[in-house]
Write a structure and sequence with these properties.
119 residues; mainly alpha; two-stranded parallel ribbon
């Protein structure tokens, strides 16, 4: 797993489109697992926003209370400890604001502007 993780990171910092081809640990929270899996569908170099991600999750039945969907997504993403592998940095505010990031807003900005060139 460590070799595959290193290969992923090497590809990532070169600006390539790495694919997670190794198992990521599952949490005990089904919403977290479903959200993390959905994050893997966001293409390299692209972003989405909390509202859009919440609507996708709601459509798939993962969110029960749509009025709190964006907030719930934000809460789930704040628990992500595999920051590059599960790309929560690709989720931004509806108006383009970077919002929170466990690794810090400057790191999120760096990842999007310098590696993924998405913003």
């Amino acid at each position: 797993i460590l070799t595959k993780a290193k290969e992923f990171l090497d590809s990532y910092v070169k600006g390539l489109n790495p694919v997670v081809n190794f198992p990521l640990r599952q949490t005990k929270d089904d919403l977290q697992n479903a959200t993390y899996q959905e994050l893997l569908n966001i293409p390299f170099g692209k972003v989405t926003n909390y509202s859009t991600l919440a609507k996708i999750m709601e459509t798939k039945g993962a969110l029960k209370h749509s009025s709190f969907s964006s907030l719930r997504i934000g809460q789930v993403l704040s628990k992500n400890t595999l920051l590059i592998f599960i790309p929560c940095h690709r989720v931004i505010g509806k108006n383009g604001d970077l919002k929170g990031y466990r690794g810090g807003i400057e790191v999120k900005k760096y990842l999007l502007e310098n590696i993924e060139k998405a913003i």
